[in-house]
Amino acid sequence: SGTAGELLLRALEDLSELDFKKFRDALAHGALRGRGRLPWGRLQKADWIETKNLMVDAYGEEAALDVAIAVFERLQLRHAAAELRESRERGYRRSYKRAVQRAYSHIKDPNARVGDAVSLNARYSQLVIVNKPRDEEQRKHELVAVGRRHAELMKEQASSSIVVGDLFKPGPDGWTPREVVLLGAAGAGKTMTARKIMLDWASDKLFGEFDYVFYIHCREGDLLSSRASLADLIAQRCPGSSPPVAEVLGQPERLLFIIDGFDELRCSLDQPRSELCSQPAEQRPVDVVLRSLLHRRLLPESSLLVTSRPAALRGLGACLACERYAEILGFSEAGREEYFHRFFESAEQAAAAFQLVRGNETLFTMCAVPVVCWIVCTVTKQQLGRAGGLVRSPKTTTGIYVLYLSALLRSLRGRPRRGVPGVLRGLSCLAAGGVCRQRVLFEEEEVRGYALDRGEALPLLLNEHLFQKDISCVSTYSFVHLSFQEFFAALFYLLEDQGGSRDPPAGPPRDVRELLESYGSSRNSFVLTVRFLFGLSNEERRRELEEETGCKITRGITQELLAWLQNSQRTALALLLQETAVIRELEVCHCLYELQDERAVAAALAPFTGVQLRGLELGRFDQTVLSFSVRNFPGLESLDLGHCSFPWDGPEAQRGQQPAEGKLSPIHPLCQALEASGCALKQLRLDRCRLTGACCGALASVLGTQPTLTELDLAGNEELGDGGVTLLCEGLRRGGCQLQTLR
C-alpha cells in the first residue's frame, strides 16, 4: 500500500548496490522513452530517497513509476519490473475501490433538498431474484412498472430464488458463467441493484474474483456521439490523471463490466460484425464499443452483467449468447416491511406508515414493485406530517401518481404557481413525444423548447444528467422514472388548452383515437399510458388534478375509452358468427380498475357474457383487478381461468406451505366478487389451477349461490383433498345442483 512515491522508494531499496548504481546511470545517460534525463552530478551520490525525490520532481509520481519500470526492463531486472508493476496495480486497485465507494455510497433521493443524499446501504432492501429460464409465453406477458409478476412468488419461484452473490457462481454442471443477464420490469430495482453491486464489490463484500468492476449505463452510449475507445471509457471512470489502463486490461479474465439498461440502447444491433472493434484502444462511436462488448468481439475473456427489461430480451439474445438469466421480481412481504423501516427516520413512523399501507391490500400488493413502494413511502411520509394523517389511501396506480404529483406541487409553496399549468403542458407534451418515439432522454435544448427551465421543471419529475461529450459536458433530462413519463403522456391527451400560455413546439397529434390505434399495434410501448388515461378519466381524480394544478381536464372521454375497450375484445370471427363476446385480456380489467367507476364498468361489460383468461399467473393485485370487474359484471355467464395460478406471499408461501386453516385462500377475493355480482354462472372452469383444500371453502360458498351452473371443470387440481371435495359437494347441494358436465 502507499503512494506512488512510496512504491518507488521500496523498489529502489530492494535493489542491490550494483543494480542501484546501474539504475542511476541509466537515468542520467540512457534512453527513457521520451522522458528527459536527470543530471549525473545530482545522481552520482544520491541515496534511495534522494533518487526517488529527483524522479518525482522531474516526472511526477505516476510517470516516475513508468520510468522506473522501463529502466528495470532495460537493465534486465525483470523481477523488479514485474513486482513494481504489480505493487502499483494493487495500490491503484485500492485507490479505485475507494473512488467507487465515494461515488456509489449515496444516492440522490428525488425529493431531497439540493445537496442532500441518502446512504445506499441504509436504503437498499433485499429483492427477490429468481434464476430460471423464461419461455416465449412468459416474455409475451412482460409487465411494465407495476407489473403483476411482482406481487407474489409461486412455490417454484421461491424455491429457485438466489442472491446477487450467486450470479457468477458455477452452475450444477460446474460451469462458471461469464455472461449474466439480470431482467426486471420497469421500476423493479435493476439500476439500484447494479449500483449496490458496485458498492459491495468496492467494500470487499462481493465478487472478489474480479480485480476491477466497471459500470456503464447504456444512456451514455446514446448520448456520446464522439469517438472513444474502451480504454478511454475505463480511464474516465478511474481516479487520477494517468490511470494504469494497460495494467488494468492486462488480465481481462479478472474484469467485470456492468452494462445497465440494455433496453435503453437505441442503436441497431444487427449491423455487420465487420464494423465492430476488437482492440481496447480502437477509437469508435461509444455505441459501437458497447455492441463490441456485447458481441464478445472486445475482451471476450472478461465477464458481463447486463440489466434489461424483458421486452428487450429478443434483441439482446441476437447479439449475446447469454449463459445465465436471472430476474428481479421485486419485494417479498418481508422485503416491503424492511424497505419501510429503512425509508422512515424513526421506527415509530415506519411502523405507523406500514400499518396504514398494510391495511389496504391493493396498495400493499403494488408495493412489491420497488418504484411504487418508493412513491407510496414518499407520499405517506408527507401525509403523516399533516393533521389527520393519510386520510385516503389511493387504490389505483393513477391515484398514487396523482397524490404524488399533488405533493410535489404543494412543495412549490412560496414560489409563484401561476406558471404550473404551462409547465405541466410542456412536461406532458415532452412525455407524449418521448413515449411515441420510445425515448427516455431529452436534450437540454429540447426541454427548453417546451417552455421548461431548471427552476420550474426539475422539481416536477425531471432529473438532470451530465454526460461527457468531447472535452465538455452536456446536460440531458429524463423523468424520474419511465412510468412517470407515461403518466404525463396520458395527461397530454386530457389537458385543455388555456389562453395566455406560451405554445410549446408541435408534439404528437392530440388524438386519443390515434393513441389507442397505436396501442393496438405496439402494446408494450403504451400499456401504462392507456391505463393512466382510464384512471385520469375518473371524476374524483379529474377534480383533484384541477384543484392542485389549476389546469382544465377534458371531460367526456370515458365513453370513447369504453367503446374502444369493447371493440378491442371482439374478434373478427366472433363478429362474423354473431357470437357473444368474452373478455380475453387481463389488461381490460386493469383499465377498468383504474377507472374506479362501478356504473361505467358495468355498462362497459354489458355486451359480454364471459371472461376467458387461461394460462396466466394471477398475483394478488391481478386478482384484485379481476375481482373488481367480476363484482360489476351481473351478466357474467362463463368464467374460464384454466391453467392459471394463484400465488400469495404470506409467511407460509415463503416456506413453501399452504395457508393455515382459518386464513384466506388466494382465490378468496375472486369468490367474494362472484357472490357479490349477482351473476348467473353457467360455466366455471378452474382446471389445472393448482388449487388446494384451502380454496374449497370459498369456492363451495360460490357454488351454493349458483343454481344455473351446468358445467364445472376442476380437472388437474390434485391437492383438493377429500375434505375439500366434501365441501364442494355440500356447496353444490345448497345451490340446487343442475350440473350436466363435471370434470
From TrEMBL:
<dbReference type="InterPro" id="IPR041267">
    <property type="entry name" value="NLRP_HD2"/>
</dbReference>
<dbReference type="Pfam" id="PF17779">
    <property type="entry name" value="WHD_NOD2"/>
</dbReference>
<keyword id="KW-0564">Palmitate</keyword>
<keyword id="KW-0804">Transcription</keyword>
<dbReference type="InterPro" id="IPR011029">
    <property type="entry name" value="DEATH-like_dom_sf"/>
</dbReference>
<keyword id="KW-0805">Transcription regulation</keyword>
<keyword id="KW-0391">Immunity</keyword>
<keyword id="KW-0963">Cytoplasm</keyword>
<dbReference type="Pfam" id="PF14484">
    <property type="entry name" value="FISNA"/>
</dbReference>
<dbReference type="GO" id="GO:0005783">
    <property type="term" value="C:endoplasmic reticulum"/>
</dbReference>
<dbReference type="InterPro" id="IPR032675">
    <property type="entry name" value="LRR_dom_sf"/>
</dbReference>
<dbReference type="InterPro" id="IPR041075">
    <property type="entry name" value="NOD1/2_WH"/>
</dbReference>
<dbReference type="InterPro" id="IPR004020">
    <property type="entry name" value="DAPIN"/>
</dbReference>
<dbReference type="GO" id="GO:0006954">
    <property type="term" value="P:inflammatory response"/>
</dbReference>
<dbReference type="Pfam" id="PF02758">
    <property type="entry name" value="PYRIN"/>
</dbReference>
<keyword id="KW-0677">Repeat</keyword>
<keyword id="KW-0539">Nucleus</keyword>
<dbReference type="InterPro" id="IPR029495">
    <property type="entry name" value="NACHT-assoc"/>
</dbReference>
<dbReference type="GO" id="GO:0045087">
    <property type="term" value="P:innate immune response"/>
</dbReference>
<dbReference type="InterPro" id="IPR027417">
    <property type="entry name" value="P-loop_NTPase"/>
</dbReference>
<keyword id="KW-0395">Inflammatory response</keyword>
<protein>
    <submittedName>
        <fullName>NLRP3 protein</fullName>
    </submittedName>
</protein>
<keyword id="KW-0832">Ubl conjugation</keyword>
<keyword id="KW-0964">Secreted</keyword>
<keyword id="KW-0472">Membrane</keyword>
<keyword id="KW-0378">Hydrolase</keyword>
<keyword id="KW-0547">Nucleotide-binding</keyword>
<dbReference type="Pfam" id="PF05729">
    <property type="entry name" value="NACHT"/>
</dbReference>
<dbReference type="GO" id="GO:0061702">
    <property type="term" value="C:canonical inflammasome complex"/>
</dbReference>
<dbReference type="InterPro" id="IPR007111">
    <property type="entry name" value="NACHT_NTPase"/>
</dbReference>
<keyword id="KW-0449">Lipoprotein</keyword>
<keyword id="KW-1271">Inflammasome</keyword>
<keyword id="KW-0256">Endoplasmic reticulum</keyword>
<dbReference type="GO" id="GO:0005524">
    <property type="term" value="F:ATP binding"/>
</dbReference>
<dbReference type="Pfam" id="PF17776">
    <property type="entry name" value="NLRC4_HD2"/>
</dbReference>
<feature type="domain" description="NACHT">
    <location>
        <begin position="178"/>
        <end position="377"/>
    </location>
</feature>
<keyword id="KW-0333">Golgi apparatus</keyword>
<dbReference type="GO" id="GO:0005576">
    <property type="term" value="C:extracellular region"/>
</dbReference>
<keyword id="KW-0597">Phosphoprotein</keyword>
<dbReference type="InterPro" id="IPR050637">
    <property type="entry name" value="NLRP_innate_immun_reg"/>
</dbReference>
<dbReference type="GO" id="GO:0016787">
    <property type="term" value="F:hydrolase activity"/>
</dbReference>
<keyword id="KW-0067">ATP-binding</keyword>
